[in-house]
Amino acid sequence: AGLTGVSYSVTPVNGATSYAWNYSGTGVTVNGSTNAVTLDFSSSATSGDLTVYGTNGCQSSGTNTLTLNVYTYALTPTGNNSIVCGDSTNVQASDNYSGSGSVTYTWAPSTGLSNTNSSSVMSGAKTSVDYTISAVSTEGCAANTTFSVTVSPISLTATANLGFVLCATSDSLHVVNNYPGAGTVTYTWSPSAGLSSTSAAHILASPVTSTNYTVSASSSDGCLATPNSIFLTVVPITLTPAASPAIITCGNTATLSISSDYPGSGSISYTWSPAGDLSNANAASPVASPTTGTN
């Protein structure tokens, strides 16, 4: 199907002045009324019988019949239609062309393609794309088809050694990816508060409040990653107060003290309440002079 100017002929009939050609199928045009004609096959032409007889206006010759099997020229693309950004896939276009000529291929768009005029190409597209593949033979047979390549973004997996920290301590955060390309991957962590680095794959996080850290990434060849996040819980400092002595008589004093599990190297500010009977409500060990039992 799709060919034009295809020649057919019969041996000349003695005395014939014209020839009657008929085709029983559809989509075919017969050009001429001599013993030699050409046929134009549309892209939707069907198989049928081509008949011809010679006539001189008074009598006709016997009918010659030729059965024509019309095949639709078709392309069949094959290949991996799903890749991760940074990878590539080989796509091949096979056809049912059986002629003696050659076939020219055209791929469009050219996005990510190793070439656009071969039956076999490599696609390294960075985003999903629909390719149209066209083929034309030297005789004029034409076919086209489509092939879609779905490109997934880079996937990130963020993890923590513990997933929690005591205030003023740190935990290790890590990120891995499934990037298959030959380029380099750059990371960005946010928020930046408490982080040893915002661009490394392995970092230390020392937040003072529980924080949800998000990491994104991009590759040097233009691929983007789907961001991933990890929640780091900050466990508050535990305070343990004490009094010595714990029981006093009216008019006497007791020394209060406080201990904590604070692991940091910084200083701690204290606030005791109620403050009325204390020597210093902001000291670690104030002296208490209550007149009644006080918590």
Key features?
mainly beta, 4-stranded mixed beta sheet, rod-shaped
What can you see in these coordinates?
The protein is 0% helix and 47% strand. It is mainly beta. Strands 8-13-12-10 form a 4-stranded mixed β-sheet, with no helix packed on it. A hairpin with an 8-residue loop joins strand 5 and strand 6. The chain is rod-shaped. The model has no long low-confidence stretch (mean pLDDT 93).
Write the layout of secondary structure elements.
Blueprint: E1 6-9, E2 18-23, E3 28-31, E4 36-41, E5 48-55, E6 64-68, E7 75-79, E8 82-84, E9 89-95, E10 103-108, E11 120-123, E12 129-137, E13 142-152, E14 154-160, E15 164-166, E16 171-177, E17 185-190, E18 202-205, E19 211-219, E20 225-226, E21 228-235, E22 239-244, E23 254-260, E24 287-288
Parallel strand pairs: 8-13, 14-20, 15-21
Antiparallel strand pairs: 1-4, 2-5, 3-4, 5-6, 7-9, 9-11, 10-12, 12-13, 14-16, 16-18, 17-19, 19-21, 22-23, 23-24
Helix/strand-derived category reads mainly beta
Element pattern in H and E: EEEEEEEEEEEEEEEEEEEEEEEE
Biggest sheet features: 4 strands, mixed
**Rg for CA atoms:** 43 Å
- SS strand fraction: over 45%
What is the helical fraction, as a range of percent?
A: under 10%
Strand element count: 24
Number of H- or I-type helical stretches: 0
Mean pLDDT: 93
Molecular shape: rod-shaped
Distance separating the two termini: 99 Å
Poorly predicted runs are none
Q: Which strand order does the major sheet show?
A: 8-13-12-10
